[in-house]
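Notes from the 1:1 (GR / supervisor)

We went over the backlog. Supervisor wanted to see one worked example end to end before approving the batch request, so GR pasted a single chain during the call. The sequence is below; no edits were made to it. Supervisor asked that the structure be written out right there so they could see what the output format looks like.
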Amino acid sequence: EAIASGSADAAPLVVVTATTREAEDLETALGLFLPSERIAVFPSWETLPHERLSPRSDTVGRRLAVLRRLAHPDPGDAAYGPLSVVVAPVRALLQPLTKGLGDLVPVALRAGDERPLEEVVDALAAAAYTRTDLVERRGEFAVRGGILDVFPPTEEHPVRIEFWGDTVEEVRWFKVADQRSLEVADHGLWAPPCRELLLTDQVRARARALADQLPGVSEMLSKVAEGIAVEGMESLAPALVDGMESVLDALPEGAVVLVVDPERVRRRAHDLVATSEEFLEASWANAAAGNHVPVDLQSLLGSASYWSMAEVRAHAEATGRAWWTLTPFVADTDLVIEDDDVDERIAVRTTDPEAFRGDTERTVEHLRERVRDGWAVAVVTEGPGLAKRVAEVLRENEVAVQALDTSRDDTLTGGTVHVTTAPLGRGFVHEAGRIEVLTETDLTGQPGSGTSTKDMRRMPSRRRNQVDPLQLRPGDHVVHEQHGVGRFVEMMQRTVAGATREYLVIEYAPSKRGQPGDRLFVPTDQLDQVTKYVGGEEPTLNKMGGSDWSKTKSRAKRYVKQIAADLIRLYSARQATKGHAFAPDSPWQRELEEAFAYVETPDQLVSIDEVKADMEKQVPMDRLICGDVGYGKTEIAVRAAFKAIQDGKQVAVLVPTTLLVSQHLQTFSERYAQFPVKVRALSRFQSDKEAREVLDGRSE
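Structure output shown during the call:
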């Protein structure tokens, strides 16, 4: 209740999810109920603890910002004040932290502050910021006279601080592309350190002493001892600092840990620990072949890179942290009497709502019955367009409906459908409370709204790629089809021959040295000739009418032709090769696909149909399926493999790690459980006898 009321005195709630994506989705959904500035994600490193790679500066900045707000919140500034909810993926929970990270003081400045510029520069250097001539990346700063440019890792834009003597005159955002100042930064400068391992005198002394004990990383330790920041030095932190601690130790008194979907979290934690150990073994194998030695401190410290979930849970109990789990499964009291890990069980008694999958008539009838029975119903969509359409349809069918303003203390009332907008994933039904929440996913069967990649394919390629002038800001680089790379200046109206039109103004390199740049006026009906520059480096402006752009295009065409010729030879050989044309889908194939527990996305359905169409041709298939984690790639493989099995073929699924072998074995076995299909694993986890049986089974 204290958290829901937004009380600054309430101890934070730490919510643990299985993945980073789930953590970010939950943060967005919680913004419907709490002020967004009181919710934060505590991200995990994107690198393994033993790798010779440093985490990104923006990841480190976000982590240190959360730890600082937990340890020393600023009650006078909501952006850096106390937190009500911290959402952390389990990977961030398992990795130990350097003690005292929350006590690291960020470099903070506001207009009117009195502080010598030299002192600020020294503080930034001590916080692992890199001094450069021009600020272009996070973690950099530059000094030009009385102007200090800093790019904090937690911000979208860098800030420019203007000093008058020792007084901060003004703090503004500025743009990296053209270095032009933007609006005033109301919060001033708030720059947390860019690394979790700072090169203090104590750290450098320990690095010098350890150089002989860890010969494999002696080069790294020698550089650290000299005060030189090296890539991957964070992996040495357990041996160089006073001690490590859990994220739980950084929480204030009274904080509560809530594990969402503990079954998935435990499995994810187990997989993380196993993957880390497996990659460490692989790194040692690579080292034996002459590559870099991994940063393995287990022999020195006697502890692994990640804690296990059991160790984290035991640590929470030892330090008096309340530990709650939220599971979708109902506990059977007859089976859990002897379970000593749970002190109390509370049944929320909510269920998933009915999936309407775009059936408007069924949706309206369902909502009419709910209203007639006095239920409080909320329909939540991501965009206002669908919310407005839902309200119109309900009014047309004489169903009581009203808008719900989530920015006020509006409450749900019985006998009415409340319509609002919010990024909420799935809804719920609470029978006892007679409350139902339906989301866009429940209504349409598709998560969120907007244009899918399937819809994008219907658009002409020029229309897809043309520049959007509303998204351009002065100084952005664009590419004109005829004139090359230029700099966007502005949108303006001009009257030519009595007709007034809008033009996109693009500036190019001057045709004569010492003169201002040439300008090109592109009518808005010719924007298909202009695209936004997407290169990774700062481009050089071309000259209008010059030969440099023509030479660049000629070189690109020559390389494209060379690549095309190689591809033509490759695919000619492929087309000449005869493969096996698989039969159309059998009844068993349709039965397998209908048993899929989830609703396929439009792109997933297109990929499945295209894969099966390729398999039914005599030409060997050449297709790459790309997608993020959890987007359904494995299900496509399950269906393709089953289609091959129906034709009497044997299927081998190759995966990069032994951990994925066990995961895919479980997935394939569960999906094929109702069919006479044998699924076996072959990895180093199998004994020699089991491996021989699998290999012998290929001839059966």
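Supervisor's comment: The two ends are 64 Å apart (CA to CA).
Batch request approved.
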